[in-house]
Amino acid sequence: MEHELEILVTEQEMAVRIDDLSLEISKIIESDAVVVGLLQGAFIFMADILRGLARNGKTPSTDFLWLSSYGDGQSAGRLNVLADLQRSISGRQVLLVDDVYDTGKTLIFAKDYLKSKGASEVLTCLMARKPEALSLPRPDFLGFDLPNRFLVGYGLDDSGRGRGYPDIRAVKP
């Protein structure tokens, strides 16, 4: 990573928001729900949501769906399924966890895909939303509204690097 980065959301702000989201989600998530994370960007956010749910007495099962629309920092414009679900979600409530809501293509595709697999309900939980998504359907649960900049950290990467930052950073203009 050769870009200069600035912190947009601190580690402490993430922790507080995760606690708030987990409490909100725990009030409506069903006991047999499945939390499905979209790989790769949502895995850290999803893990923290799951820990927050456990602190609130909810321990849903988990699964992952790996869709790709990006390659080395640029959107490819089409989605590819790289890895499918490993368990049945038929007749079950699903909490779909994703990292960044921008064009909406990934979220809409994933939500429709999960419904086609028989999910009884698909709730959405997004870590961040960019301005271009403001005209799209609001996610059920949202972490932060962030500017339209390239984001790194807390699971988000720059060509495979930077996912481990404990905060959300943006490439300086």
Which labels suit this protein?
alpha/beta; 173 residues; 3 helices; 3-stranded antiparallel sheet; 6-stranded mixed sheet; Rossmann fold
Task: Explain the overall architecture.
The protein contains 3 helices and 9 strands, in the order βαβαβββαββββ. By secondary structure, the chain is of the alpha/beta class. The model has no long low-confidence stretch (mean pLDDT 90). The protein has a single domain, classed as Rossmann fold, CATH 3.40.50. Helices cover 24% and strands 35% of the residues.
Largest sheet report? 6 strands, mixed
**What kind of assembly state do the chains in view correspond to?**
single chain
Instruction: Give the percentage of residues in beta strands.
Output: 35-45%
Low-confidence stretches: none
CATH level 1 class label: Alpha Beta
